[in-house]
Every structure is written in structure tokens, then in C-alpha cells.
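Re: that chain you flagged

S.,

Sorry for the slow reply, it's been a week of failed gels. I finally had a moment to sit down with the sequence you sent. For the record, here it is as I used it:
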Amino acid sequence: MPGIEVAKSTVEKYRPRLAGPPSPAWRTFLDQHVRDLVSIDFFIVPMATFRVLFVFIVVAHNRRRIVHFNVTEHPAAQWTAQQIIEAFPFDTAPGYLIQDGDGLSGERVTRSIESLGIDEVITAPASPWQNAYVERVIETLRRELFNHVIVLNERHFKRLMSSHLDYYHPWRTHQSLNSDTPDGRRVRAVEPCNVVEFPAVHGLHHVYLPKAA
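Prediction finished late last night. Pasting the C-alpha cells below so you have them in one place:
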């Protein structure tokens, strides 16, 4: 009641005790299984014709790699299930797959995930922070690519995306990877040299390398 002070020891004395050990936090789960986790999600890209493309991506948590992507104007559960099968050929399936369980998923998608021996993890409704890895990659794709170009059609999108991944995986650094890249890059010795600039992603980005002697 208002105006009544209760000692912390009194609250702890009468507070109900859990029957077993506390459940690990969501962050703990991610940290413990980061090497065996992938996330999937959709985002949309408008085209010059004012139609919308639905982009499906699969992100591996440990190195922030985009292991698969595809695009369609007419997404459906059957199409999504096929993308999951194509993303993990030849026994490359991870242990866990995180998704938000939106309307583009469903029983067919769940069956495809289970057929690969993957444990499906569904995030809570309206909780994008529970799928933060893929959400961050989507933000990066928008900020570094699709906010700067007008997509003409599916073929144009795939060409842009493939070009970006050729830059993103070997050259794009991440603070969460200690300024390394998804593919990993060789650390060069600091010494005076001439540097050559190479355009990437049709000039949206650049790569800087020492000039050969």
C-alpha cells in the first residue's frame, strides 16, 4: 500500500521460489548457439514500375554471412519452403533456425525445416529484436544499396544483390566481428605504400588495396 515501506529481506522471504533453475535468457541462448544458428526473413523492395518485390534472405549468425537469397513478386508458403531446401544442400543444415512466424510461413515451411533436421525457433509477436541479426543485415542492405538505386525488375535486383555480396562478404567489415569481414581478410602490415582505389557495387562502394611494386 502507498506509504508503507517494506524491507527488501521481507520481500525476499515471502516471494515465491522457482521450482527449478531459471530459464536462460534469450541473449544467453544466442551466445551459446551462435555457431549453429541461422535466421530467415523477408523484406520488400519497390520497383520502377511501382510493383513490389519480396526478398527472402538466410543469414548465418557466426559470420553474418548471407547464405541464400531469392526474390519474387508472389510469395507463398510453398515458395518459401523451397528456398529453405535450396539454402542448405549436402548436409549443411544448421541446428537452429529463427524466424518470426509471419503469414508467409506455415505448416509447409515447418515441414521443410523439420525434414532437414533443424529445430525451428519462433520469435514472439512484434519482437523484431529477437531476430536482430537478420534485421540488422536487412537494414544494411537498404542503407548501403537499395536506398541508392531504382530496381527495374527481378533480373536487375539479382544482379545488384550478387554484386553487393561480392563486396559484402570479402570486404565489408563488422564491429561485431572485431572489424573483420564475413569471409575473413588478411591483416596487412602498416607500411608506407601507394594505395589503389577499386570501385565495387557499380561505384557505390570502393575497395582500397596497396599498389603492387
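What I noticed first: The chain has one domain: 23-174+189-210.

Talk soon,
D.
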